[in-house]
């Protein structure tokens, strides 16, 4: 894995935004896989700034988000769709028909997962997938456990994950849905390029295991070791448990 370490979270965000801007310049109809969470907030702010400055054009780009809570529709204040509207979609020239999202309010959630897989296939696959990582090592909403599901599927959220997402639900973990829909690890690993982003000391232990540990469903991020083009963008704190040798 190609590991890039930056001094500050702001430097991570601006390097990532530049990386996305370069991808859009090289391939204007690039298919982007996008994450939510605290980690990408500054990257989205930087992309909004670059777009306002005329330096990045989303006019032909396609996006797929990684995951969505079950039981909430796109207009719900806690939905990831709303998060994306606030942080990116409303401020850039993405065509609404090229924005793809899991519908957490679909009547048949299993059929909704199949539909999403088919849409990804129909675009020819994701070119550049950006990923956050949960403090428990989850990727998308692929939670640690005895087994992982390869394709887009329904998941039961870990209690730690519900707590981590409470801010979206008026600070109350009990309001966070118990279930979500998520791309599977196989879906994610099919992207041509993966970029995993982590900031802060809280992520340091799972970053160290992601790079140096065995492949295990108890740390879904460890499967990124199998990918031919996986890059890690880390700030110094998230990288603090890596030795020079392990980075090489
Ligand atoms: P965070 O979440 O960016 O808010 O830490 C990351 C994740 O759960 O994937």
Write a structural description.
- This protein is of the alpha/beta class and 248 residues long.
- Helices cover 31% and strands 17% of the residues.
- The chain contains 8 helices and 10 strands.
- The strands form 2 sheets. A 7-stranded parallel beta sheet has the order 1-10-9-6-2-3-5. A 3-stranded antiparallel beta sheet has the order 4-8-7, with helices on one face.
- The longest helix has 18 residues.
- The chain is globular, with a radius of gyration of 17 Å.
- The structure holds 2-phosphoglycolic acid (PGA).
- The site of 2-phosphoglycolic acid (PGA) has 6 residues, from loops.
Number of helices: 8
Structural class: alpha/beta
Number of strands: 10
Low-pLDDT ranges: none
SSE ordering: EHEHEEHEHEEHEHEHEH
Shape: globular
Distance between the termini: 9 Å
Task: Give the strand line-up of the largest sheet.
Answer: 1-10-9-6-2-3-5
Which ligands occur here? Answer: 2-phosphoglycolic acid
Helix content: 25-40%
Percentage beta strand = 15-25%
Q: Helices and strands in order, then pairings?
A:
Elements: E1 2-6, H1 9-26, E2 31-34, H2 41-52, E3 62-65, E4 67-69, H3 80-87, E5 99-100, H4 109-122, E6 128-131, E7 153-156, H5 159-164, E8 179-182, H6 185-189, E9 193-198, H7 204-212, E10 230-235, H8 244-247
Parallel strand pairs: 1-10, 2-3, 2-6, 3-5, 6-9, 9-10
Antiparallel strand pairs: 4-8, 7-8
Helix pairs in contact: 1-2
């Amino acid at each position: 894995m190609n590991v890039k370490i930056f001094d500050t979270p702001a430097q991570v965000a601006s390097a990532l935004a530049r990386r996305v801007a370069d991808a859009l310049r090289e391939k204007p109809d690039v298919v982007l896989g996008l994450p939510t969470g605290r980690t990408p907030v500054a990257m989205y702010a930087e992309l909004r700034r670059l777009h306002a400055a005329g330096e990045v054009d989303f006019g032909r780009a396609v996006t797929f988000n990684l995951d969505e809570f079950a039981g909430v529709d796109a207009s719900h204040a806690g939905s990831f769709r709303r998060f994306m509207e606030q942080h990116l979609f409303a401020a850039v020239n993405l065509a609404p028909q090229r924005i793809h999202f899991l519908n957490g309010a679909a009547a048949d959630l299993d059929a909704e997962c199949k539909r999403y897989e088919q849409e990804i296939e129909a675009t020819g696959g994701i070119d550049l997938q950006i990923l956050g990582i949960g403090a428990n090592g989850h990727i998308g909403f692929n939670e640690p456990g005895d087994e992982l599901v390869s394709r887009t599927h329904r998941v039961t959220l870990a209690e730690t994950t519900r707590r981590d997402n409470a801010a979206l639900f008026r600070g109350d973990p009990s309001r966070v849905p118990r279930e979500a829909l998520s791309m599977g690890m196989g879906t994610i690993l099919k992207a041509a390029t993966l970029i995993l982003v982590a900031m802060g000391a809280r992520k340091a232990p799972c970053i160290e295991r992601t790079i140096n540990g065995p492949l295990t469903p108890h740390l879904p991020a460890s499967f990124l070791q199998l990918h031919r083009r996986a890059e890690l963008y880390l700030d110094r704190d998230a990288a603090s448990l890596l030795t020079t040798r392990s980075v090489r």
